[in-house]
Design brief:
The complex is a heterodimer of chains A (265) and B (494). Chain A has 2 domains: 126 residues, Rossmann fold (3-Layer(aba) Sandwich); 109 residues, Rossmann fold. Chain A is an alpha/beta fold and 265 residues long. In chain A, the strands form 2 sheets. Chain A has a 4-stranded parallel beta sheet with strand order 2-1-3-4, with helices on both faces. Chain A has 13 helices and 8 strands. Chain B has 2 domains: 298 residues, 3-Layer(aba) Sandwich (Rossmann fold), CATH 3.40.50.10420; 59 residues, no CATH class. The longest helix of chain B is centred in the N-terminal third of the chain and has 23 residues. The chains are: A alpha/beta (265), B alpha/beta (494). Chains A and B meet through helix 1, helix 2, helix 3, helix 4 and helix 8 of A and helix 1, helix 14, helix 16, helix 17 and helix 18 of B.
């Protein structure tokens, strides 16, 4: 059925001439496809042309952080290949983006041909909220989301990549949204990739404390920018039967955007 | 945990034990939170703390890069000032040197102020074996000594003890009518220790920094016990790591800001002692003899290793312990090494102590809080990853794990195999997944599902749907619309 949607203000199409290659991440692609979909739709709203290069699989971080450097490099090279021609690469994960920024230059340093490629890729790869705020210059997506929300800043995004105020800036502009400060927000949730399974009990202790802190805010929604962490905290909250929705920032924003709410139908 | 038991097992087993101890966890949480808060106050008032960190890093990396020069200069100046310098290759040699001096002095009692290197060389154990009383005079160290334990924190040795537990320990050595009030506890220790200072023949201290230009030993302490130990006994022994050098007093000024502020959130340490040689003619205080034992124990092997040399920059402030979420939950003893926390997880496997600490680098979520807190910017999180890679390269990882990552590499190396792998997982998870979640505690899933739900692989991957989404968006574009509403979905809303 043909829907009639409002015309888009030309000023909003700030990304009109941009072509963005989506670095989906293996986790979002297979476990949280709705996150990638929300990202694509938001980027599309700003006129950005999104492509999804088929060559990509995973950034290699699970192997790299576990000490399997050669295996990590073999998998990571799929990304170098996939994003060769892209102007911008945008990803829903601060951790996977951090892997490219922080570790790829060294991972490929001894590989003739790939070393420059890795440096260049790091220079044009952005985490979603940073791309929106720092590249597109968007701080208000025009969303309305009448819920209490608390935000968990993921460690790798914050510390390896420097994601700082961008997610909060976007959240602060959402109408009707009540932001509750998360106590001990900067403490790791205990995910840490294979750490979560290898050091299961320590990881669980960390996840439980994070879950306690989330619950103590009374927020209806926990939002973040990394599905690894949100899978961990969400998995714990669910086991505790806590009535907290867990959303990626892109999901929250898209859900609150007028087009998503079907305005003008 | 007895002194003999705290190093047994591996980090998984030891942390399992620690996680059952709610006293321990409560005490560690309480104190690290307080220290973190105080540190943030003490560092923010300095203005640009980042600039201070960079200065600290520059000083330490310069010193360590030229350690041969500065260490030689330090030793020359110590000797010129009348002190004796001893080099020890490893812990056993350092302990032997200390024991020879103690033996020569026919000492029956050795009083100690806080020294991590003295823990590293297990000097108390050697003294005890030789029938010499070793008395820890730092309050925290005194407490853990009474408990028959090792320190569980670099700066706060008894961080794992509650005040009730401390009171009970003091009652065990004769205290009567003791409350759990800090002042009362400290007063009891002070009374008891005063006698020991007066009768000890040898005083053993650590060394926060050795100043190369003067041969001075800089001691930071808060209880004044360091001064007693370095002035009352006739002989003083200093144990120090070979990297603990600063070129000049100007560098010490920077460290005098970085160290107390990072460690305990103090603007200044209560006592900063500078000891240059033994007591000279006409001086009232100080020992007749000063011996400085300089320990290598694996440190020199890090020089020239581009990934590990920075471990020698550490100034032992303990800030990385206070922010570490792993340390927060398991405390220090679970690390099973003299140095716990993130710095311990990096340093311990590098020391000349065999392979018993090789698993420590895995006891980290790699969150990077340690690096952020480090006043000299040691990239501990990167070093942990590098140590893991070395562990795997040495063939230490389990066969099962190696096969698993081999499988990962094969299946993620091409998009076709990647998609086929997840298609296979969709089939395999049937019977396990309820709704879109897996809670079954089977096989390798247990590590996750014992405490957390695991999302099932989605019925359709994003990539399999992208063409469809794209078509819809293109149609909308032509109609000036913007695409429809995604399904309402959340990681936790089933």
């Amino acid at each position: 059925m043909k829907r009639k949607l409002p015309r888009v203000d030309a000023a909003e199409r700030v990304g009109e001439t941009m072509k963005v290659a989506l670095f989906i991440t293996c986790l979002v692609d297979n476990f949280y496809p709705a996150v990638a979909e929300a990202m694509v739709r938001i980027l599309h709203r700003y006129g950005v042309e999104v492509v999804v290069p088929d060559q990509q699989t995973c950034c290699g971080q699970p192997a790299f952080n576990s000490g399997y450097v050669d295996d990590a490099r073999a998998v990571a090279s799929t990304l170098l290949e996939a994003f060769k021609g892209a102007d911008y690469v945008v990803s829903p994960s601060g951790s996977c983006t951090g892997m490219i920024h922080h570790y790829y230059p060294k991972l490929f340093a001894a590989e003739p041909g790939s070393a420059d490629e890795a440096m260049a890729l790091a220079g044009r790869t952005f985490e979603f909220s940073q791309f929106l705020v720092n590249v597109l210059g968007v701080t208000d997506v025009g969303a309305t989301f009448a819920h209490t929300v608390t935000y968990h800043p993921s460690c790798h995004g914050a510390r390896l990549l420097g994601v700082d105020k961008e997610p909060l800036t976007l959240l602060q502009h959402v109408r009707g949204l009540t932001l509750r400060d998360l106590p001990h927000a900067a403490d790791c949730c205990g995910f840490g990739g294979t750490f979560a399974v290898k050091m299961s009990e320590i990881s669980t202790a960390m996840a439980s404390e994070k879950s306690d802190h989330v619950r103590s805010t009374g927020a209806e929604v926990l939002v973040g920018t990394d599905m690894g962490c949100l899978m961990n905290i969400g998995g714990r909250l669910r086991r505790e039967e806590a009535p907290v929705r867990v959303l990626h920032l892109a999901q929250l924003l898209w859900e609150g955007m007028p087009v998503a709410q079907g305005v003008g139908e | 945990m007895s002194d003999a038991g705290w190093q047994a097992g591996n980090v998984v087993e030891r942390s399992h034990e620690a996680l059952q101890d709610n006293f321990l966890r409560g005490a560690v949480r309480f104190t690290t939170d307080r220290l973190k808060g105080r540190k943030s106050e003490a560092t923010s008032e300095l203005g640009d703390w980042e600039q201070w960190r960079e200065r600290g890093q520059a000083i330490r990396s310069h010193t360590v890069a030229h350690l041969d020069y500065y260490l030689a200069q330090f030793c020359d100046r110590v000797r010129e000032a009348g002190g004796h310098v001893h080099f020890a290759d490893d812990a056993a040699e350092a302990a032997m040197i200390v024991m020879q001096i103690v033996d020569e002095k026919k000492a029956k009692t050795v009083v100690k102020s806080k020294s991590m290197v003295s823990e590293e060389i297990h000097v108390n154990h050697h003294l005890l074996q030789a029938g010499v009383r070793a008395i820890e005079t730092d309050l925290g160290e005194y407490i853990v000594q009474l408990a028959g334990q090792a320190p569980s924190h670099i700066i706060i040795p008894a961080i794992h003890k509650t005040r009730e537990q401390i009171r009970d320990l003091f009652v065990g050595v004769g205290a009567t009518d003791l409350t759990t009030d800090t002042a009362a506890l400290a007063a009891f220790a002070r009374r008891t220790l005063r006698q020991e200072f007066l009768q000890a023949e040898v005083g053993l201290t650590g060394c926060n920094f050795g100043i190369a230009e003067s041969g001075s030993v800089a001691l930071f302490s808060n209880e004044g016990n360091g001064r007693m130990v370095s002035t009352l006994p006739r002989t003083q022994i200093v144990t120090m790591g070979m990297e603990r050098i600063l070129p000049t007093f100007a560098d010490l000024e920077v460290m005098a800001n970085l160290l107390p502020r990072s460690a305990t959130g103090q603007k200044l340490t209560a006592y900063l002692s500078l000891i240059t040689g033994p007591r000279r003619e006409g001086e009232g205080d100080g020992p007749d003899e000063l011996h400085i034992v300089i320990l290598d124990n694996g440190r020199s092997r890090q020089l020239g290793d581009p990934d590990m040399q920075a471990v020698l920059h550490c100034i032992r402030c303990g800030a990385c312990l206070n922010v570490c979420p792993v340390y927060r939950h398991i405390g220090g003893h679970a690390y099973g090494s003299v140095y716990p926390g993130p710095i311990g997880a990096v340093l311990s496997p590098l020391l000349q102590e065999g392979d018993k600490h090789a698993d420590l680098p895995f006891a980290s979520s790699l969150c990077g809080a340690c690096y952020e807190a480090c006043p000299v910017k040691i990239p501990l999180h990167d070093m942990l990853v590098t140590l893991r890679a070395r562990y795997v390269a040495r063939g230490k990882a389990s066969q099962l794990e190696r096969v698993a990552f081999r499988g990962y590499r094969v299946s993620f190396a091409t998009p076709r195999r990647y998609k086929a792998s997840f298609a296979l997982l969709r089939v395999l998870q049937r019977g396990l997944a309820k709704g879109n979640q897996i809670d079954a505690q089977v096989g390798p899933l247990r590590g996750w599902t014992a405490s957390r739900s695991l999302p099932a692989v989605a019925a359709h991957s994003f990539r399999s749907r992208f063409a469809e989404i794209k078509r819809e968006l293109d149609v909308d574009d032509r109609g000036q619309g913007l695409g429809g509403k995604p399904e309402r979905e959340g990681a936790n809303n089933g």
